[in-house]
Amino acid sequence: MNIDTAFEFFPILETERLVLRQLKEKDAPNLFSYFSKDEVTEYYDLESFTSKQQAVDLISRLSQRYEEGKQIRWGITLKGNDELIGTCGFHSIERDHFKAEIGYELHPHFWGKGIMAEVIQKVVEYGFNTMELNRIEAFYDPENVSSKRVLEKNGFEYEGVLRKRFFAKGRFVDAAISGLLKEV
């Protein structure tokens, strides 16, 4: 198996409490419900959503990028309830280097319950075992201590800060980087 295996058919992943599945247009209202909250987009490179159409458009872009083999983003649902509560997945996939960047977000109602740590563990396992990645990295705002903490819980090592790495919301922002290697 290799990276392209993830793009032959969309994989469904399960944890003890969760089902990670492909996003659908019907998820747009739930996606909007949390992407319209400033506390969710505070450290994101996009403004809070103001219309449900933005959620529809995002789902469409993510689906297109999956079809192109450039990105895989799972919708997070609780077992027994197909309502979307967040997403997690890989982007910036570099096949030649067996590397990808992980990204995620979660509805604030579910913060502090260990859900994202559980999700990341499963997504990382899939990345290393099925996609045969060697390195998974994450960029996050250095002030986002919750993101740093959930990455550390999953074995990611803090590697430093890239000063003024991104231009977001009208200003240059630093990016902390953490990485996880397969052989660790």
Automatic annotation (TrEMBL):
EC numbers on record: 2.3.-.-
Coiled coil regions in record: none
Keyword annotations of the record: Acyltransferase, Transferase
Gene Ontology MF annotations: acyltransferase activity
SUPFAM superfamilies: Acyl-CoA N-acyltransferases (Nat)
Acyltransferase in keyword set: yes
Pfam families reported in the protein's UniProt record: Acetyltransf_3
Enzymatic class: transferase
Record CDD domains: NAT_SF
Limits of the N-acetyltransferase domain: 18-174
Protein name: GNAT family N-acetyltransferase
Organism: Cytobacillus spartinae
Taxonomic lineage: Bacteria, Bacillati, Bacillota, Bacilli, Bacillales
